[in-house]
Amino acid sequence: MKFTEGNWLVKDGMKIYGATEVVDFEITESSLTLYVMPFYIKNKGDTLGGPMLTIVLTAPHDDIIRVNAYHFKHAKESGPEFIINDEKKTFTVEEENEFINFKSGNLAVKIRKSGDFSMNFFYNDAYLTGSNFKSLAYIVAEDERSFIREQLNLGVGEYVYGLGERFTSFVKNGQTVEMWNADGGTNSEQTYKNIPFYVTNKGYGVFVNTPGLISYEVASERVSKVQFSVESENLEYMVIGGNGLKAVLKNYTDITGKPSLPPAWSFGLWLTTSFTTNYDEKTVKGFIEGMAERDIPLSVFHFDCFWMKAFQWTDFEWDKGQFPDPIGMIERLKENGLKISVWINPYIAQKSKLFDEATENGYLLKKPDGSVWQWDLWQPGMGIVDFTNPDARRWFSDKLKKLLDMGVDCFKTDFGERIPTNVVYHDNSDPQKMHNYYTYLYNKTVFEATKEKKGKETLVFARSATAGSQQFPVHWGGDCSATYESMAESLRGGLSLGLCGFGFWSHDIAGFESKATPDLYKRWTAFGLLSSHSRLHGNNAYKVPWLYDEESVDVLRFFTKLKNRLMPYIYSKAIEASQKGIPVMRSMLMEFDDPTCLYLDRQYMLGDALLVAPIFSEDGVVTYYLPKGKWMNFITKEIAEGGGWRTEKHGYMSLPLMLRQSTPIATGKIDSRPDYDYSDGVTFHLFGIEDGSDISSKIYDLEGRAEAEIKVKRSGKFIDVNVENLQNKDKKWNLMIYDRIKSIEGGDKSEGNGTKIVSKNNHIKLELEGESNGR
């Protein structure tokens, strides 16, 4: 929201009271409180009027400083509020002649004690951002609405990222962004997942701690500022520091929640019925058998909306006309080793037999007059479950548990965005704040119900989200179109979401709307299988590959098996995501201190070792950027020198999947499924190990326990490789080295695209030919 007309004028009907001067402050064991006036106090008469801004500084976590600014202290503010892990860390306050210094960990803020107000943040003494004279303000509109606004400085060459799964430009500078969840597809400024958290390339983040509507003006109303405002008497935000963006994400997810670790089977290929297609058990069986006959490994089969009878969503009951024996069907499908997912939403249509039950018990949102809120936009006469009601949550959960007992493994939790504000909640929550927060309660309810039955084998497949929702993975990108442009916008959205602490992300392979061309199907398949999670799904078109062309079958088989082989590596990155909040799919700027990487949104890192550049053109030509160093295409084994742009043409069975030098990765011997013993016959791949390197990498079992660790050291021409079996000493391991080898101690070798070495024990010593890294 904009409050000014250019640099000099204020919009009609607005009065802005900007922070001008600190007139007093208090230091206690728990906080530093500043009293700030919007004008200078020149005499005692100036103290007789307001308004006054009160700013309270605390430290919820090391390297995080919380700023709470308010006008009226006890203005009525209803919940909900984000759940924050407030560790109430110790801080230090030091007074200088002109400044007060407040420090949490290595993050400090310096506040001017008198004169022009300023509040500047530093990490290890390096300047990050600040709030200048009159940047923080209390604003009153002529219609008596009140706002708190903050404007934090942006430096020259500083770029802003994140703010949720946004499909607009990856760099947010110049954009107006509103935190308001919407079911708007992937081709507009609206998004399903609004997260009030951004990071910049200077290595810090800012989290605005309210689930309500926040308006951001990112280098727009003031091109050297990130402005954010709320209609409220209170504004709270946190500046989050760290030694690099990964540390910032760790600190942010320390207070808002770490992503849960999805089960290993969820990383395999998902196939769905699609949305408005006609299907029954015979159709489903035909799809599954068709995949098996074509040797395409399938991990999850998903039943979309019409597993329930039309007009009755959600009633949690199989349409007996299409599925007369659902329990038997599920048992038959599971004989093929499949997991089963079914679609749900938080809405109850009035034709559902549950509608009257929910109404009578007060489980649905109500209008102010006490009647049930209803509309016809998604289902005729539908109501919305009120998840602030504990009994409604329990009721909803019990319906899910019956399906879990039947053999269902997980739920696709669709919708949760179009939540009305002209309603009354059971706990009297503020409807404006609940609009975004609703998705948190919805997905938390489903996640916890599943966890009660499935334990560690728990996930949801969610579309909507807000801050903290990363705890309930997996999330997918919503309704994209079957075009290359939509494929690219989907990737932009996923990379933005990853910079908000979401570790796992998926998208509808080949697009949701319309039917893809065979060309697009094959290119999107490669991208989809090199994403965190991989799902074939559409609206009115089936997504089995043989309906496109026979080459599509080959492409899907190739990349599905490639991903399954990569699972020891991918799962280790999933463990990292669950422990540190670092996403599996990472924007380039997260891994490289390289100015070119600041803008890249058509390529990404899969973990820290593999660069993926999807192909967005019918001619198979791709232009992508390789940071400095040596790289090897993991599919073709071609060596490339980084430090510049490359333009290549690829067939459907390849794309730039580039292995970064000096970053060992592990692959498994199984390609028929994603969940297997990763340490049994594991192959470690080494490429371009630099002189002086001392690196390591772990692989984990399906319980998330470290099972083996490879340690690699190079000195001159010699490389020492040690693999420590952390659980089972008997398992063999292999080494694939892509450098020229003169001699080997401790293993037997065979030549191919690289040198394969079968270990004799836990140690191998290599002597290189010459000093070069890579062939």
Short account of what is shown:
With 775 residues, the protein is an alpha+beta fold. Helices cover 18% and strands 31% of the residues.
How is this structure best described in words?
The structure is a single chain. The chain has 775 residues and is of the alpha+beta class. It folds into 4 domains: 13-78 and 85-256, glycosyl hydrolase (family 31) (Immunoglobulin-like), CATH 2.60.40.1760; 264-580, Glycosidases (TIM Barrel); 585-660, Immunoglobulin-like, CATH 2.60.40.1180; 677-768, Golgi alpha-mannosidase II (Immunoglobulin-like, Sandwich), CATH 2.60.40. Strand 11 and strand 12 (126-131) form a beta hairpin. Helix 5 runs parallel beside helix 6 (431-454) and helix 8 (518-529) packs parallel to helix 9. The mean pLDDT is 96.
Keywords:
single chain; TIM Barrel; 775 residues; eight-stranded antiparallel β-sheet; alpha+beta; 18% helix; Immunoglobulin-like
Strand order of the largest sheet: 4-5-6-7-21-18-17-15
**Count of the separate structural domains:** 4
Shape: globular
CATH-derived topology of the largest domain:
TIM Barrel
Number of strands: 50
Question: At the fourth CATH level, what is the homologous superfamily of the largest domain?
Answer: Glycosidases
Uncertain spans:
none
Structural class: alpha+beta
Q: What percent of the residues sit in helical stretches (DSSP H or I)?
A: 10-25%
Give me the Rg, rounded.
28 Å
The main β sheet shows up as: 8 strands, antiparallel
List the helices and strands and how they pair.
Layout: E1 4-5, E2 9-10, E3 14-18, E4 21-27, E5 32-37, E6 53-61, E7 64-70, E8 92-95, E9 99-104, E10 107-112, E11 119-123, E12 126-131, E13 137-141, E14 146-153, E15 160-164, E16 175-178, E17 194-200, E18 204-208, E19 215-218, E20 225-230, E21 234-240, H1 245-256, E22 269-272, H2 281-293, E23 300-303, H3 326-334, E24 339-344, E25 347-348, H4 354-360, E26 383-384, H5 390-406, E27 410-413, H6 431-454, E28 460-462, E29 475-476, H7 484-498, E30 505-506, E31 508-509, H8 518-529, E32 534-536, H9 550-565, H10 567-580, E33 585-586, H11 588-591, E34 604-606, E35 610-612, E36 621-626, E37 630-633, E38 639-641, E39 644-649, E40 657-660, E41 665-667, E42 682-686, E43 694-700, E44 706-715, E45 718-725, E46 733-737, E47 741-745, E48 747-752, E49 754-759, E50 763-768
Parallel strand pairs: 22-23, 22-32, 23-24, 24-27, 27-28, 29-30, 31-32, 42-46
Antiparallel strand pairs: 1-2, 3-13, 4-5, 5-6, 6-7, 7-21, 8-9, 9-10, 10-11, 11-12, 13-14, 14-20, 15-17, 16-19, 17-18, 18-21, 19-20, 25-26, 33-34, 34-35, 35-40, 36-39, 37-38, 37-40, 41-42, 43-44, 44-45, 45-50, 46-49, 47-50, 48-49
